[in-house]
Amino acid sequence: MLVLLAFIIVFHITSAALLFVATIDNAWWVGEEYFADIWRVCVNNTNCTEITDSFKGYSTVQAVQATMILATILCCVAFLIFVLQLFRLKQGERFVLTSIIQLMACLCVMIAASIYTDRREDFHQHNSNVYLLTSEGKYGYSFILAWVAFAFTFVSGLMYLILRKRK
Question: Distance between CA atoms of 14 and 7, rounded to whole angstroms?
């Protein structure tokens, strides 16, 4: 049982780390001379512009930012609740609250990555057409990490739902 518990803890911490990297790092969309994320657009690695309300689709970018931050916070809260429930629940009770919070984090990541996938063209097209990044480039590793974090948080949420506290 101790090995299973260690695996669950490591899996959850890995999920949280993936969420942190996907939210913070600047590689959601990359090209030869630029990279972009949900916070800024950088050309030649020196000319970085914060995504502000002057960008087309700024409200959509804010939705992605908010849901990624919320997913990260929920994942961390779920871990803290898991640790508390580990010592407070009676034997045989389920970690339902931890599971629900982790599945909500999973839902937030899915929403953020789905919005980004659907509306990517709007994110990186400045109104003054300085950055027309829609036709060239590819999804970066942070975007891929967001989808991997979705899978990890989903599996983690299911593990907590199934897990029973044993000796």
Answer: 10
Between CA 71 and CA 56 the distance in angstroms is 25
**What is the spatial distance between Cα 9 and Cα 24, in angstroms, rounded to a whole number?**
23
- Which helix H or strand E contains 36, and what residues bound it? strand 34-36
Domain enclosing residue 84, as ranges: 2-162
Write the CATH number for 66: 1.20.140.150
pLDDT in tens, 98-108: 999 999 999 99
Model pTM? 0.85
Over residues 29-66, the pLDDT tens digits come to 888 777 878 888 787 777 877 777 777 677 888 899 99
**14: Cα separation from own chain's centroid:** 12
**Residue 167 falls within a domain, yes or no?**
no
Q: Say if CB 103 and CB 96 are below 8 A apart.
A: no
